Write the structure tokens for this entry.
Amino acid sequence: MMRIDAHQHFWQLAARRGAWPPPELAPIHRDFGPGDLLPLLRDGGIDATVLVQSLPHEADTRFMLDLADRHAFIGAVVGWVDLKAADAPQRIAVLAAHPKLRGLRPMLQDLDVENWIDDPCLDPAVDAMLRHGLVFDALVLPRHLRGLLAFARRHPTLPIVIDHLAKPAMQGKPDARWRDDMARLAALPQVACKLSGLVTEAGPDWTVEQLQPYAEHVLQVFRPERLVWGSDWPVSRLASSYAAWIDASEILLARLDAHQRAAVFGLNALRIYRIELSAM
């Protein structure tokens, strides 16, 4: 069974100029590159990854595309462009000329304006994304979901992938508003969701039982056909080893049949991010 980690990061602290992560997050306050991840991929049976941006500037995207040129296991890159810039379509076209750029991700979770995404000013950038076959990765918190819903309805042909289940508060039962908002988004056929980031949101003392109701809800509303597995490494190091998250995911997806498990663990990412096996 092909397995793809649809959400991982690399970074160099020297390029981040005081940006996140802060020094107090010691497990992730250092450089992370392909040499750190490759042994974990081999041990976990992971065939390819989707490398995702972690800084809101294009230099970070170019850094990732350069890594993708040199490391075949990086099957796709999700970068960043200022989608409200007047020249956003031109900037998108330049980056999309790289064969492994497969998506863009504005860092909506950092914005105080909950409906930033529900704005016709984004239309030219979205049109450019559609022309170049790019996916919109949605890094959001639960309070942004209604704005994201309006955006998704405005652009019914744009593939959208919600990162980390929108980072719900994972203490106790799932919040009813989160459940309802995710269900409304899941009703739109172009929206998918990443099964990623759960352990970080749950905290270092997480249990599979704690994660289960959240995983079950997205499985129910998105179905296995639109759920995509990812690690969120190295951020996940704050709460879990790579291997422990794989083991937990196996349990969370145990009720699925072999075809459905293959879809979540790899085939959906292969399709959504148009990963070319011949280039790996």
Observations:
- Residues 84 and 122 are 6 Å apart (CA to CA).
- The chain has one domain: 4-279.
- The longest helix spans residues 208-222.
